[in-house]
Design a protein that fits this description.
Order of helices and strands: HEEHEHHHHHEH
Strand content: 15-25%
Number of helices: 8
Shape: globular
Length: 240
């Protein structure tokens, strides 16, 4: 069993295209639509729409298999989860921010926390995700400040987000856009969180700790010293 684990760990470190990489435990593959960039203190910097971008993101057993109902991913997730102000702009989907925030906070307050994850928590806690995306022309509202569900061709070419989100009978919900995070810090080459192996290791260690507490399991683990981009990993306080 230990030999098999070492083989798996070695496979994780191979420099392969995303679709050929081994999936880390407690992670899943998803299509991302929006990338939000913040600094190490949790301050918004910019955002962009992603086209045909798949990312590996931390997941729980429930969120990896969710089809409906509340089951937040721990880090990257849809606007209906990560945006506290989603309801303020008439989001059509049920808002699940509180569940997302609670799960993220618990990770951040654990001994397995990661400084970039804490920066993301500080940012989402401000409750301005939709407002920041509106200011950067990523999402769009009507004259009543309600998130649009379709684009009027009389207003010109549809925004990129309206082209990448799935539609049902010509309608879409911007709350379905999955947000991934970039945390820019000086001298850190691994700003994109979905490419940062230390964040993957942080979530895996946290999940292992929770399972040991719940079930009394003792699972073999060899700490990973190599990462996808060899970033530094320093903890900081949750609030500043």
């Amino acid at each position: 069993m230990e030999k098999l684990y070492h083989t798996y760990e070695a496979g994780l470190l191979l420099d392969l295209p995303l679709e050929q990489r081994l999936m880390p435990t407690s992670h899943t593959l998803q299509n991302a639509h929006i990338n939000i960039v913040i600094d190490g203190e949790g301050n918004f910097k910019r955002a962009s729409v992603l086209e045909k971008t798949q990312i590996i993101l931390p997941a729980t057993e429930s969120s990896a298999s969710r089809s409906s109902g509340e089951a937040p991913h721990p880090l990257a997730d849809k606007l209906q989860y990560v945006a506290k102000d989603y309801e303020d702009f008439g989001g059509k989907k049920k808002a699940y921010f509180e569940g997302y925030k609670k799960q993220l906070q618990t990770w951040c307050e654990s001994e397995h926390a990661h400084d970039k994850v804490r920066a993301i928590y500080r940012y989402i806690e401000k409750g301005a995700v939709i407002r920041d995306l509106l200011a950067n022309n990523i999402v769009f509202v009507d004259s009543d400040n309600i998130l649009l569900t379709q684009w009027n061709s009389d207003d010109g070419e549809a925004p990129v987000l309206f082209k990448v989100l799935p539609k049902e009978k010509g309608m879409l919900d911007q709350g379905s856009a999955l947000v991934c995070w970039t945390v820019e810090k000086p001298s850190d080459p691994s700003a994109d969180t979905w490419k940062d192996g230390t964040i993957q290791a942080s979530w895996i260690a946290y999940v292992r700790h929770i399972r040991q507490q719940q079930y009394g399991l003792v699972l073999y683990h060899r700490p990973r010293t190599n990462t996808l981009d060899q970033p530094s990993c320093q903890n900081s306080s949750l609030r500043r």
